[in-house]
Design goal:
Blueprint: H1 2-10, E1 21-23, H2 26-33, H3 37-49, E2 53-55, E3 69-72, H4 73-83, H5 91-102, H6 115-118, H7 120-126, H8 133-149, E4 156-158, E5 160-163, E6 166-169, E7 171-172, E8 175-176, E9 178-180, H9 181-189
Antiparallel strand pairs: 1-3, 2-3, 4-9, 5-6, 7-8
Length: 190
Amino acid sequence: MLDRMSISQKNKWIDSENRAFIIYSQQEAMEMLGCKENKAINLFKELETIGLMERKKQGQGKAAKKENVTVNYYICDMLEERFGKRTVYDYTLAINNMIAEAKTMKAEFVLADLPTFAGVNDVLIEYDIKESPAQVRSRLGKMFTEAVKKGNAKGIERAVSERNGVEEFKSASRAAVYCNKLYKQKKNSK
């Protein structure tokens, strides 16, 4: 849904109160809620009645297509949280695990060296999470980098190298290289 939200914002699908909307089909709602068509229809009607959902018009007053319903993002989130049967990836747990794993690294490393990052596919399959491994890894990479920048991953920093007298961040095959500063200090003090 986050992907759809960003597409909606990019396409300027915004209501008079400056809220972005997403296209969300009745079929998707049925699958997410684990309900039959009548229940989904009744839910949509109720949300429409209280102004939390609008059907996408086809132009010149034609009725909305049954499969194209525009729902306020916050309502989708609320419905998914309350009634959803699907499991979502726990990014907070994953980042905390990655930071702990990074603190055990004895050499420079890339995120793919961390078991949590490397095992994303297995977790998605095991828990039947409907996110692509590439999306999950991309988000984890951004979150880990941000944690390092903000000092939330104590002792972990980007590895640097010197080229032509200038220090720059190391990378390996376009992947950021990190190091465990605490391990480096222990090693150097021996």
